[in-house]
From TrEMBL:
<dbReference type="GO" id="GO:0005524">
    <property type="term" value="F:ATP binding"/>
</dbReference>
<feature type="active site">
    <location>
        <position position="10"/>
    </location>
</feature>
<comment type="similarity">
    <text>Belongs to the GHMP kinase family. IspE subfamily.</text>
</comment>
<dbReference type="InterPro" id="IPR006204">
    <property type="entry name" value="GHMP_kinase_N_dom"/>
</dbReference>
<comment type="function">
    <text>Catalyzes the phosphorylation of the position 2 hydroxy group of 4-diphosphocytidyl-2C-methyl-D-erythritol.</text>
</comment>
<dbReference type="Pfam" id="PF08544">
    <property type="entry name" value="GHMP_kinases_C"/>
</dbReference>
<keyword id="KW-0414">Isoprene biosynthesis</keyword>
<dbReference type="GO" id="GO:0019288">
    <property type="term" value="P:isopentenyl diphosphate biosynthetic process, methylerythritol 4-phosphate pathway"/>
</dbReference>
<dbReference type="InterPro" id="IPR004424">
    <property type="entry name" value="IspE"/>
</dbReference>
<feature type="active site">
    <location>
        <position position="137"/>
    </location>
</feature>
<dbReference type="Pfam" id="PF00288">
    <property type="entry name" value="GHMP_kinases_N"/>
</dbReference>
<keyword id="KW-0808">Transferase</keyword>
<dbReference type="InterPro" id="IPR020568">
    <property type="entry name" value="Ribosomal_Su5_D2-typ_SF"/>
</dbReference>
<keyword id="KW-0547">Nucleotide-binding</keyword>
<feature type="domain" description="GHMP kinase C-terminal">
    <location>
        <begin position="205"/>
        <end position="278"/>
    </location>
</feature>
<keyword id="KW-0067">ATP-binding</keyword>
<keyword id="KW-0418">Kinase</keyword>
Length: 297
């Protein structure tokens, strides 16, 4: 018997970053939107814990116990005194090291899949607690939809969204490490007063309304200057998307994937074509959101 879970990618429509905390993390006000680009995680009983991966970026995915999917299985098994003897197979469509929570998606997916396979019957709260131990973005991968994340980004409140937003995502030629982008944020912030991160009331109102033009005027990402500083060519991708008619162009999370909000599905196709032809990125995808979080299929 196998269990397969489908888990979406995310884009941040607001990412407000505070000063570095004593533990090295940053307090965030992080508005997540789950979008329809998915990884599928399948778990099957096996002699021992094993991870395999297929998909365009599969070669960059670690198959050892640093993989968040393996860590999720070990964490749940540890809590139940079980042996994490499963084969975890990841069908990967979310870009690796792209700022779209691909690794987090695999962690949330493996956790839900193992819970189902082993009949551990973990409550939603326990699953969310394990997710938060695995990484700051993992709880959101489990719940999906739209949510405000505070603390490290792991303490979630679900948000109302009044419609579907159409996006184009441009994948870059190489990845960016999230810790490196946060370090660059700290370096650029040196000597400046960093305000407490707070969710923008305007942005939350606009999300609830579902109006893409108003959302485009409200999106922000405090990590964008740091991502651009480490990866200056991303400015060309952002300019190409804007030139093609995107309502907003921003770095997704810590990057280097760039995200383009468009008026509707048709406009998304046009922007995607133009970005594809621009020579400023590796691949281009369209996806709409919000969509549901990790789901057994
Ligand atoms: O929580 P996660 O393992 O996904 O975080 C990866 C890295 O991103 C952390 O080690 C830290 O460098 C940085 N980070 C941060 N503040 C957050 C979330 C992540 O500095 N709120």
């Amino acid at each position: 018997m196998s269990v397969t879970v489908r888990v979406p990618a995310k884009v941040n429509v607001q990412l407000a970053v505070g000063a570095a905390r004593p533990d090295g993390f940053h307090d965030l006000a992080n508005v997540f939107l789950a979008v329809g680009l998915y990884d599928e995680v399948t778990v099957t009983p096996s002699d021992e814990l094993r991870v395999t991966c297929e998909g365009p970026d599969a070669a960059q995915v670690p198959l050892d116990r640093t993989n968040l999917a393996a860590r999720a299985a070990i964490a749940l098994a540890g809590r139940r005194g079980l042996d994490a003897a499963v084969h975890i197979h990841i069908a990967k469509d979310i870009p690796v090291a792209g700022g779209m929570a691909g690794g987090s998606a695999d962690g949330a997916g493996a956790l839900l899949a193992c819970d189902t396979l082993w009949g551990t019957g973990a409550s939603r709260e326990e699953l969310l607690e394990i997710c938060a131990e695995l990484g700051s973005d993992v709880p959101f991968s489990l719940v999906g939809g739209a949510a405000l994340g505070v603390g490290r980004g792991e303490r979630l409140t679900a948000l109302e969204v009044g419609g579907t937003f159409h996006w184009v995502f441009a994948m870059a030629a190489r990845g960016l490490s999230t810790p490196a982008v946060f370090r660059e944020f700290d370096r650029l912030a040196e000597g400046r007063d960093i305000p407490e991160p707070v969710a923008s009331a305007d942005l939350l109102a606009v999300l609830a309304k579902g109006d893409p033009e108003a959302l485009a005027a409200a999106v922000t990402n405090d990590l964008q200057p740091a991502a651009l500083s480490l990866f200056p060519e991303l400015a060309d991708t952002l300019a190409a998307g804007r030139g093609a008619g995107a309502l907003a162009a921003l770095v997704s999370g810590s990057g280097p994937t760039t995200a383009f909000l468009t008026r509707d599905a048709e406009s998304a196709e046009k922007v995607a074509q133009a970005l594809g032809a621009s020579g400023t990125c590796r691949t281009v995808r369209t996806a709409a959101g919000p969509v549901a979080g990790a789901t057994v299929v």
